[in-house]
Amino acid sequence: MNDQVKVACNDCKGCTKCCENMEDTIILDPYDIWQLTHKLKISGGGRVNFDILVSEDGPLELGMHDGVILPHMKMVATEDENVGVCSFLGSNGRCSIHFCRPGMCRLYPLGRIFEDGEGDKVSLGYFILNEELGCPIEDTSYTSVDSWLGYGDKEKYQDYLIKWRNVRRALREAGEDMDMDVLEDILLDMLGHFFAHEYGEDFFAEFDNLYESWTSGGN
Predict the structure, then answer these.
(1) Which is nearest to 73 in space by CA: 82, 169, 84, 81?
(2) Which of 115, 164, 188, 215 minimizes the number of CB atoms within 10 Å of its CB?
(3) Alpha-carbon gap, residue 48 to 167, rounded angstroms
(4) In which element (H, E) is residue 70 found?
(5) Apex 119 CA angle, 113 and 125, nearest 5
(6) Taken in order 188, 190, 192, 196, is the CA torsion positive or negative?
(7) Which residue range is the domain that position 70 belongs to?
(8) pLDDT at residue 48 in the model
(9) CA–CA separation, 210 vs 136, rounded Å?
(10) What is the mean pLDDT of each run of 10 residues along the chain (219 residues)?
């Protein structure tokens, strides 16, 4: 995570490529939802919740991603019919939730891979996206992966990412030989269990409890 990568885009300088025409590819995980529900407010000062975020007028949508129902960023129409932009992109061309942007946005233009080792050991690797998918800004500078991601407790975050990957993989594999109606019920239960749960301040501790409950069949 301390590896140096040439991705620092010098505050983007008004470029919004990574906020345009992303369709349903900006997928959110439970940590992303926790960030949004704890840092965004609705009129009147109350917090948003998962149901508000994925409502018809909300900034997120639910979709099937690799066999699992998950929330993704909603793209909204612009005056240019060929361009749809993220719901959170401001009129000034800046991200209005940069302080709590989702992990996929924080990661870009890096990609992440999970490398399985012996036994249950899993490590994370990072790579720079190719020219077609990556950032178009040429005047980039070096930074560490740690600094680019900007997460305070990187060990807990990495442990969480691996556990969440395990949940998604198990659901995907189980669904390959499962009746669609049964699978849909399980996936909706998963959304309620991990996404709609009202987390407190210690997300990682609560997620660990939910993860143990889910994997032990106590959900």
Answers:
(1) 84
(2) 115
(3) 25
(4) strand 68-73
(5) 15
(6) negative
(7) 4-215
(8) 93
(9) 40
(10) 74 81 95 95 84 95 96 92 90 90 92 88 88 79 84 89 96 91 95 97 97 86
